[in-house]
Write a structure and sequence with these properties.
Layout lengths: L13 H24 L2 H27 L6 H12 L6 H14 L15 H6 L2 H10 L5 H13 L5 H4 L4 H27 L4 H28 L10 H7 L2 H4 L3 E2 L14 H6 L8 H10 L8 E2 L2 H10 L2 E3 L4 E3 L12
Length: 339
C-alpha cells in the first residue's frame, strides 16, 4: 500500500520517544518495588500495573522494530531489545514474524502468521484434541494461551525451522538474551525474598509469573480484535489478496471501555499503523485523520468490551475463504444416551 498520504507523520521525535521509554522504565521499576515492599493487597495492585507496563514497553519495542521510534537504526535496535526484555520478546525473531510475515502479507493465509482462521474443511480434518484447543484459543478465556503457545513459545524463543524456516545466529543470540534476562530476574526476586524474609514463591508469582501471563492475555486479545470480525476479510489466494485488499478490510481501530486503549500508546489505532508502519505511536491519531480525510479509511471504530469479545469469539471462529464469510464453530456432537 502506498503511504504518501501519511508521510508527514513519519518522522520520529527523539525527545518524545526518549521520554516515553524513560517514563515506562521508571514505572516498571516502581511497580517491581511495590511488589517487593508493599503489603499483600498493594502487591496485587502492582501485579496488574506490571502487566499494563509490560504491554506499554512492548509497544515501544514494536515501534523500534519498525524503525519508527528513533531515526537511527542502531538506536532502534538497542532500545528495542532493551524494552522487549521484560516481555521476553526476541527482537530479531519478532521482526521476521511481525514486520516481514504479518505486515508484508496481512490476512493472507499461508504467509501471515497471526490468528489465521481455519476453513470449515480444515477444522473438520483436525484431530479432536486440536479442535478442542482451537475452540479454547478462540474463546475469551484462551486469547492469552494462544499468544503464549502459538506465537511466543513456538516462534519467539529458540524456534525450530518448522516455525521460522531458518536458524540464524542473531535468532539464537536474541533468544539467549531473553532467556538469560528471565532467569536473572527470577533469581533477583528470589534473592530479594530471602533478604526481606518473604516467601520466594510470593514475589516470583506477583512479580513475574502473573504479570507475564496477564501480558500474554492483553497481547492475544489485542491482535485478535485487530484481525477478527464480520468486516475483516481474509484471503487464501495471493493474486486475489493483491487485487482486492483494502485497509478497512485487513484491520480496524479499537476503543476499549473507559478508553483504556489510551494506556497502550495509541497502538489500537491500527489502520494507520498497517497503512504505514513507519509512523510513531504518538502520531497515529494524526495519521488516522489523514486516512479518513482522503477516504482511504472509513470512520468506523469498534468498541470492544467483554460482551463484544464473547460475541466475536462465538461468531467468528472459522472462515469461508470462497464466500469471504465468518462462521461459528460447528455444534459438538451430542453424547450418546445412557440406559
Amino acid at each position: 500500500m502506498a503511504a504518501g498520504i501519511t508521510a508527514p507523520e513519519r518522522a520520529p521525535c527523539a525527545v518524545r520517544s526518549t521520554v516515553q521509554v524513560s517514563i515506562d522504565l521508571v514505572l516498571l521499576a516502581a511497580s517491581i518495588a511495590g511488589v517487593i515492599l508493599l503489603p499483600l493487597w498493594a502487591k496485587v495492585a502492582c501485579t496488574f500495573a506490571l502487566a499494563v507496563i509490560l504491554a506499554r514497553l512492548f509497544v515501544l519495542g514494536h515501534d523500534a522494530c519498525h524503525g519508527s521510534l528513533f531515526k537511527s537504526g542502531k538506536v532502534n535496535a538497542w532500545v528495542g531489545r532493551l524494552v522487549f526484555l521484560p516481555t521476553l520478546t526476541t527482537f530479531s525473531l519478532w521482526h521476521v514474524g511481525h514486520n516481514v510475515a504479518h505486515h508484508g502479507f496481512a490476512n493472507l493465509k499461508g504467509r501471515d502468521q497471526v490468528w489465521v482462521p481455519f476453513s470449515p474443511g480444515e477444522f473438520a480434518a483436525l484431530p479432536k484434541w486440536r479442535q478442542r484447543l482451537e475452540r479454547l484459543y478462540r474463546s475469551v478465556w484462551g486469547f492469552g494461551l494462544y499468544y503464549l503457545v502459538e506465537l511466543w513459545w513456538n516462534k519467539l524463543v529458540f524456534p525450530t525451522r518448522k516455525h521460522v524456516g531458518s536458524r540464524r545466529k542473531v535468532f539464537i543470540a536474541d533468544s539467549i538474551l531473553a532467556v538469560a534476562f528471565g532467569v536473572a530476574y527470577l533469581a533477583f526476586l528470589v534473592a530479594i525474598a530471602y533478604v526481606t524474609e518473604q516467601p520466594w514463591w510470593l514475589l516470583a508469582l506477583f512479580g513475574a509469573v502473573i504479570p507475564f501471563l496477564l501480558w500474554n492475555y492483553i497481547m492475544g486479545t489485542v491482535i485478535f480484535v485487530h484481525h477478527t470480525g464480520p468486516d475483516m476479510v481474509w484471503f487464501d489466494k495471493r493474486s486475489e489478496w493483491m487485487r482486492l485488499r483494502k485497509v478497512d478490510d485487513l484491520t480496524r481501530d479499537i476503543h476499549f471501555p473507559l478508553r483504556l486503549e489510551k494506556l497502550l500508546h495509541g497502538i489500537m489505532l491500527h489502520r494507520a499503523h498497517h497503512y504505514d508502519p513507519y509512523i510513531p505511536n504518538y502520531r497515529l491519531k494524526a495519521a488516522t485523520q489523514r486516512l479518513l480525510a482522503h477516504g482511504v479509511a472509513s470512520a468506523r471504530a469498534t468498541v470492544a468490551g467483554w460482551k463484544y469479545l464473547r460475541e466475536l469469539s462465538r461468531k467468528c471462529a472459522l472462515y469461508d475463504y470462497e464466500a469471504k464469510a465468518w462462521l461459528a464453530f460447528p455444534q459438538r456432537a451430542p453424547l450418546p444416551a445412557t440406559n
